[in-house]
Specification:
heterodimer, A: alpha/beta, Alpha-Beta Plaits, 2 domains, 14 strands, B: 356 residues, alpha/beta, abc type-2 transporter like fold, four-stranded mixed β-sheet, 4 strands, 67% helix, binds adenosine-5'-triphosphate, binds magnesium ion
């Protein structure tokens, strides 16, 4: 059984369509990555799935309950961590825990057990009386996640939980997500970080409210870009890029630090052509040219550019 | 935060209580005595003895009178004409001219009252004296003795009248702004969204806000009541429990209004602006707190019917100053009750709809 089934979900704000006829399924117990640029409609989709925003049309089943007319039951079975920090900053750690535990009706032994667990995963043992606002960002996020799942929901929705958090804390946060997933919790998480997307069992990409790609990371890499990709390392990155973009056989280009990724339109082109063009004709020292399998980033840039072009037409 | 919530009303009441003192204690007076006789000097003495008039200037011509009045140095000029004594002796009517600097009409009319009082007494004295001299029986039976009695506020202290009103004002300001800010603040920081996702029911969420703010409202009320009675020495003549009960009804209206503001504002700033300028200021002007409602244009008078503060001020002035209770104030109490319930229901529905 699927934890979440989304059917033709649409949300319009006046004339503007924020989520446009989206369909996808999330399997029980998996980590499901939800990707998209700013304003793509990720938060809007999540807010519909957790029952605080009514869809304009379409429906979804969350844990088997319709978000349209069973939102009370949906709410009992989910946890949610919003894009904003969502604990009370002026309360202490334990006051926040007690407050949310109270709302979910946890008491007695159960409460003690869950409180201990939250404090452990947030790394806040012996710090329960600290005012929440004084905690470092990474710890706050883990406390927020711990509190969001204090009632052990079957499904948890995390909206950009790691934005603005340092890389080490992000790592720790993902360890916690994996722990939840191992325990059988279904996790739907939105992110801007593509390295995080690699940790997901399944990924969808939305752009301007429309779903444009879906699959696990291997599938995405092989299904959406058929053409070969060359990674080029040269002295003068920007100059090289300008020269390459003039060639007919160059499809899309993107810069990754010192490297350029080029998606070729013509599979007969090989490394030799690049050396000739940059080094011999233009005198740019080329250190390395290599055929690579695309990264998720290549795939997403490719897909979003393709989709945007289509929208312009 | 709590300190601000409770300290602000205390300071407000004390400052406003003193500022609201509109009593006339000193009437700056100019005398232009053209007669310069023993009778005129006797007459002037009466003013001095009254305790209200301070005879700052004695002048000799009209120009000086005009200047003093124009410059606002004197509130009233009393001009005693040349043949004042002569006319009185001849038992003719002696004219007396008084000029007022009337920019503060209230003050001027109070001064006029005092002058009339003194003049009446003086002329009574003359009648009596004359009769005496003629060797007739002294009798005042035919003369008119104007008797002015001030009810409820015998010392005529405006403070006694204003402070209960200020109390209503403070209760309104603190509860409306607390309620509206608290909800909007939770929306701004995101905890409201977090709460909505929990299985908590809307009515529970609303009660969770109403109960603590009602309690805070009561603590504020108790504090200002204590200051009113202990600091300003204004006694509550009526039933204190009835006062608390009506205050509860009034607080409910305010919380309803606060909740409504929170549904129309996106940020705390907006909520603050909306509550101060769109709600509280007009309500204060229209409540009869400072400006008598019966002096307002008819249309505006109709608007005052929907102002909860108006009813509470009537009630609290009634209880504190007149010592009246439910039997006289039942209509206002009922209206306040109805308004409280209606506002709460209306705002709660709006609030629930908004978060869905
Ligand atoms: N209540 C609303 N009224 C009108 N427009 C809205 C509303 N909520 C969101 N939008 C618009 O819908 C679009 C999608 O917003 P959404 O917050 O879902 O994007 P997102 O993918 O979560 O972006 P981000 O990565 O920045 O969080 C945006 O253009 C946003 O301005
Ligand atoms: Mg978002």
């Amino acid at each position: 059984m699927n934890a979440i089934e989304v059917n033709n979900l649409t949300k319009e704000f006046g004339k503007f369509t924020a989520v446009d006829n989206v369909n996808f399924n999330v399997k029980q117990g998996e980590i499901f990555g939800f990707l998209g640029a700013n304003g793509a409609g990720k938060s809007t989709t999540i807010r519909m799935l957790i029952g605080i925003l009514e869809p304009t049309s379409g429906d979804a089943l969350v844990s088997g309950y319709s978000i349209k007319n069973q939102s009370d039951l949906v709410k009992k079975n989910i946890g949610y961590m919003s894009q904003k920090f969502s604990l009370y900053n002026d309360l202490t750690v334990v006051e926040n825990i007690r407050f949310f535990a109270g709302i979910y009706g946890l008491d007695g032994k159960k409460y003690e057990e869950r409180k201990k667990w939250v404090l452990k995963v947030a790394n806040l043992e012996n710090m329960e009386n600290v005012i929440t606002s004084s905690l470092p960002g990474g710890i706050k996020q883990r406390l927020a996640l711990g509190t969001a799942v204090i009632h052990e929901p079957k499904i948890v929705f995390l909206d950009e939980p790691t934005s603005g958090v340092d890389p080490i804390s992000r790592r720790n946060f993902w360890d916690l997500i994996n722990e939840l997933s191992d325990g059988g919790t279904t996790v739907l998480v939105t992110t801007h970080y593509l390295d995080e997307a690699e940790f997901c069992n399944d990924i969808i990409l939305i752009n301007a409210g429309k779903l444009i790609a879906q699959g696990n990371s291997t599938e995405l890499k092989s299904n959406y870009i058929k053409n070969p990709i060359l990674e080029i390392e040269s002295d003068r990155v920007v100059d090289s890029l300008e020269i390459l973009e003039k060639e007919k056989w160059v499809g899309e280009t993107s810069i990754f630090g010192n490297y350029i990724h080029v998606i070729l339109n013509d599979s007969t082109i090989n490394e030799q052509h690049i050396y000739q063009l940059l080094q011999e004709k233009n005198g740019i020292a080329v250190k390395r040219v290599e055929k690579i399998t695309p990264t998720l980033e290549d795939v997403f840039i490719h897909l979003i550019e393709k989709d945007s072009k289509k929208n312009v037409q | 935060m709590l300190v601000v919530i409770f300290m602000a009303p205390i300071l407000q009441l004390i400052f406003l209580g003193y500022a609201a003192n509109m009593d006339v204690n000193v009437i700056h007076t100019t005398i232009y005595d053209q007669d310069k006789t023993s009778t005129s000097r006797d007459f002037i003495k009466r003013f001095e003895q009254s305790g209200y008039f301070k005879l700052d200037y004695y002048v000799d011509n009209y120009d000086e009178v005009t200047d003093l009045l124009n410059e606002g140095k004197t509130l009233v000029a009393i001009i005693i004409p040349k043949d004042f004594e002569k006319k009185i002796k001849r038992r003719e009517t002696a004219p007396l001219q008084t000029l007022f600097e009337g920019s503060d009409g209230n003050k001027a009319s109070i001064a006029l009252g005092f002058i009339q009082g003194i003049t009446t007494k003086f002329s009574q004295g003359i009648v009596a004296e004359t009769k005496d001299k003629l060797g007739m029986k002294i009798s005042l039976s035919g003369s008119l003795v104007p008797e002015v009695r001030v009810w409820y506020n015998p010392e005529m202290k405006t403070r006694n009248y204003m402070v209960p009103g200020i109390l209503g004002l403070i209760l309104m300001i603190s509860t409306i702004s607390l309620m509206s800010m608290a909800v909007v603040r939770e929306r701004e920081i995101g905890t409201l969204e977090q709460l909505i996702v929990t299985p908590i029911k809307n009515y529970q969420l609303i009660l969770g806000k109403l109960i603590p703010f009602t309690l805070i409202g009561f603590v504020v009320l108790i504090i200002v009541l204590v200051i009113m009675t202990q600091w300003f020495g204004i006694v509550v003549r009526g039933n204190k429990l009835f006062l608390l009960f009506t205050a509860l009804l009034f607080v409910l209206s305010n919380l309803g209004i606060g909740l409504f503001i929170s549904t129309v504002s996106k940020t705390q700033q907006q909520a603050m602006m909306a509550s101060v300028f769109a709600i509280m200021m007009p309500m204060i002007y229209l409540s009869g707190f400072a400006f008598p409602i019966e002096n307002m244009p008819k249309v505006v008078q109709y608007i005052t019917y929907i102002i909860p503060l108006k009813y509470f001020i009537i009630i609290i002035r009634g209880i504190v100053l007149k010592g009246i209770g439910f039997s006289s104030l039942w209509l206002e109490t009922l209206i306040l009750f109805g308004m409280g319930i209606a506002l709460l229901i209306f705002s709660s529905l709006r609030f629930s709809k908004k978060i869905e």
